[in-house]
Write a structure and sequence with these properties.
Strands 1, 2, 3, 5, 6, 8, 9 and 12 form an eight-stranded mixed β-sheet that branches. A four-stranded antiparallel β-sheet has the order 11-10-14-15, with no helix packed on it. It has a three-stranded antiparallel β-sheet with strand order 7-4-13. The two termini are about 25 Å apart. The protein has helices spanning about 10-15, 90-95, 105, 150-160; strands spanning about 5, 25-30, 35, 50-55, 55-60, 75-85, 85-90, 110-115, 120, 130-135, 140-145, 170, 180, 185-190, 195-200. About 15% of the residues lie in helices and about 35% in strands. The protein binds magnesium ion. Magnesium ion binds near residues 7, 54, 85, 174 and 175.
Length: about 200
């Protein structure tokens, strides 16, 4: 399986990191070993002094496909949750400055926290989901999937032009504004449509 991630998919977040609002999806990947399963803590990595949370809606792929048309893309995912795209922002900024790939800043072990998946039913519209992230009990991110620049179906159509997507792949769909630092002993909790689906402790 692979973890496909979208960067700068909410205009307010692109602006907070002083990036241009993209005209095409910004895609990167994390390796399988990046997954941090529910209930597991993240140990603060020794190579960064500026670890950031980015809370994102995550969908799970349920069908293999390539060159998927946007109108059929909703057949290719059947579960949704929240995840955290943990980012070593100091490393990422150095790499961005040099125009280099940022994998080590975003793909390290534990960098892809994944919550408990919820099945997508006829009543679930992934393009109309509210989600929040709390840091130590205080809300720090308040997002809505209707504010994505490229919605889930557009992301799948775009990505599948280049990569076959496979059953079990995860798609991190980008973070809204409000990203920030975490420190050891912090607790992050993610709420999807008001239901808690994610909890991560930093150690
Ligand atoms: Mg992200």
């Amino acid at each position: 399986m692979k973890i496909i991630c979208v960067g700068r998919n909410y205009a307010e977040h692109a602006k907070e990191l002083k990036n241009d609002v993209p005209t095409e999806p910004v895609i990167f990947m994390k390796p399988k070993g990046a997954i941090l399963l529910p209930e597991k803590p993240l140990y603060y990595p020794e190579f960064t002094d500026d670890l950031h949370y980015e809370c994102e809606v995550v969908v799970k792929v349920c069908k293999n496909g390539k060159h998927i048309q946007e109108k059929f893309a909703n057949k290719y995912y059947d579960q949704v949750t929240l995840g955290i795209d943990f980012t070593a922002r100091d490393l990422q900024n150095e790499l961005k400055k040099k125009g280099l790939p940022w994998e080590i800043a975003k793909g390290f072990d534990g960098s892809a926290a994944v919550g408990t998946f919820v099945p997508i039913t006829a009543e679930t519209d992934v393009h109309n989901l509210a989600f929040q992230l709390n840091l130590n009990g205080e809300m720090v991110q308040d997002g809505h999937t209707r504010n994505m620049i490229f919605n889930v179906d557009k992301i799948i159509a775009y990505v599948s032009k280049y990569f076959t997507i496979n059953i079990g792949d995860l798609i991190f769909t980008g973070t809204p504004a409000g990203v920030g630092q975490v420190s050891p002993d912090d607790k992050l909790e993610g709420y999807l449509q008001g239901n808690k689906v994610l909890e991560v402790e930093i150690k």
